[in-house]
Amino acid sequence: MSAMIRLMWKEYRALRGLWLALAIFGLVCDAMVFFFTDSLQERLPGIFGFAGVLPTGFALGAGAMLFALEREDATYELLRCLPTTSPRVFAAKVFTALIGSLLLGFLLVAVALGDMRAMAAWPNIDHSILTGPLGYVLIYALLVVQGLGWSVFFSLQSSRPLLAALLGAIGASSCIGLVHGATENLGLAKLGGTWDSPTMHLLATLAIWSADVWLGSRWLRARRAKRQSRSEGEKAMKRLLWQEWRGSRRMLLVVVALGVFVPVALWPLFIPLTVLGFALLGASTFLSDQERRQFRFFAERGVSPRRLWFSRQLFWGGAALSLAAVLFLAERLWASLVLASPNEAERLLKLTGWVFEPLNYLVWVALAFAAGQACSMFLQSGVLAATLGVVFAGLLAGWMALIHALDIGLWWSVAPLAAALFAATWLRSNDWLVERHTWRSWAPAILAPLATFAALLVAVPAYRVWEIPAPVMALEISPRPKPSAEAAFAASRLQRLCESFSSPSSAGLGANYEALRPLYHPANSTLEAKELEWLKDNEETLKRVISVLDELPRDATIAGGAPRSSPHLGFDAIGAMILRYGQMAERDGHLNEAWRRYQAVFKLAAFAWPENGVRGEFFGDSLVTAAAMQLMRWGAQKGQTDANLRTAIAALRQSEAADPPLAEIAMNEYREYVEIIDAAVARPDESDPPLRFFAKWAPWEIARLRRLYRYEASRNVHDARPLDKSLAGLADQMIDWTSERNIASESTFWRTSPMPPLIEISVLAPGRLSAVCCRRAAQLVLAVEAWILEHGAPPKKLDELRGTYFDSLPLDPYTFNHRTFEWFPWGLSAPVKYHSTAWSTTDSAAKLAAGTPFIYGASGGNHTERATLERLGRRSADE
To answer: N or C, fewer C-beta in 10 Å, the chain?
Structure first.
């Protein structure tokens, strides 16, 4: 222990000048901070900043002096003569530098202790003001250790302290930049808290200190004899290259010709077959040396195994790069010809063309060549090495294709395999040349690629799971409510009735008849003969369906036992036919019966909406929109009564109040997919093939799928809640309900998943807005019709309807400030054509005759459209 203390005392005497200079400078800087700042909140960041920066500078300077100064002062040989060891000297030097950095930091922090104590006594103090600077000190401590590690590394290699300090600063700053770039730009940031910047800095620090410990433990050992001069080494390398050329030039020409001819001749498989040439060149790397064990010639003459290894890699690797350049130009030419004349080859090019992106192509070439050269050294038979080299290269190319399909960075998931295979032959070269075959001689060469591939088999699944971002908000799936016995019975009865409809194809309507969209436009309200025929054939079933819907309990939903669709018609088409059935009653003058049938459509929508996820939202919105549009025409029929209109207005208001929120729809869809995943895990043999495979053999993909659905569902719920709040009138204005999304990455997430993505709220919102808008507009139209029945003329303003029909007027859901609809009681002074893509499937525009009263929705505040209508609007009935 006394020897250790004496060594540390020696280092203290060497470093105290630098320590005192930085300590005095730091205290002067702290004094300036005290002088130029008034508040404690402004003072602390500056003091803690100096307490972190100056110890980092001391660590860089001290680390550079620890070992380089020994050579500069010619004391290195003296240390070697002392009765001590390299690890002890290394530990004494490093501990002295670390203690000096720590004391310097404590000295500079101590200046602020009084301020921190004074701030802690303040009432209602925000403790983040105190803990924030301390957090920076912890980060600075990590940087101190990293900076010391880099400066020590270069000090061990150099005899100039200043050069070591500069190189240490460059190395530390470059490492920090690379860690930040890898975290932010190369995909590691998607892994969340597992690979954040502090963790990456810690890994980099451990790596540099591992190198320092290894070099420091050997620092005092005697140096090797002087190596050959550079000129002698260059001559030896040239002789080895010339010898390989003379012995292998024919093999080289044959392999290169084969590597060009086979891919070009079999041009549809051009890109996959490029592996052949690179693998064969790799398999030929040590072929001439393996034949008749000619490598003994080099062993007997003392040729360096590593120089021999490098010469073979340089010769055959250069040939592989030349072949790669030829194939690259051929692929560019082939691609231009394919794109000029599209055919089946173009599809293959799009599928595999990613290989010829420059960085991917380099990895592709290196991987195939590395597989071949590994087989060339480990297998003496040239035929066996070539065969297994091609097979091995093909397997690695398949791994690379899989990694590309999963959109994982090739730089960390594929390139290390090539590096490990090169490292395996480099580690084996010494023992290979002297024919040493013990397990210790084989272990490093075998463990290098095996450990790399094992690490990738762990890292890739972990990355697949943790590349999915954390959910935007917490989600909790509530259990499905169990329907009452009455609701279940009604639902099953409705199911049987829906299954008893005759096929619409029997009436010439088509097997998947969709009658909704023609209803959206007033011009398409005429019943066709084939529709009347189908309605009459199924009239008894329609009556019973309407009767069941009239008596349907409020808690009856699809979850209560009804199917998502009948064998012939979906619920959307059934609702459309009920609407047509109401039109038939309306045509015959039975307005009350028509209203009963229209009301059944709203009940059918309410029945199918809540528990049917996105599908229920789509046809629920469609049914409500179509029924509301039809009610506007129903309210203007002759023989209409005020009581009927008031009843319809109240029913429409209640219908909107019962609409499930979009956030609930998003959660229901999420719950459906979670139930599918749970069922696949519980009973994999009964699930679809992709889920069956993942549930049995790739559980991390199931975990990734759960995380992905949770992330997307949290996005949808987050986006839906502001819109629900706005539609409910709880917000002062329409909220921007589309959150910021990384569309490119999200589409990639789903592209590599076995199940479909969730439907975004941006897709559902237009249908919901259309349904709400039409239903509110229908209330206003019916109220206007009732006003006309009572007063004989339409109201001049919609405000006149307050009190009689509405407590407050329905709001236009498309406006951003919750405006009411606009009313043109005397229409326009000229006829206009209008067209709405939400309500019409035809390109023909409808015509609004001059003088026709109408209600106008702002549609998001189109000021040009509104100004045009106001300019054309009539001011009186006589205008």
So the answer is: N
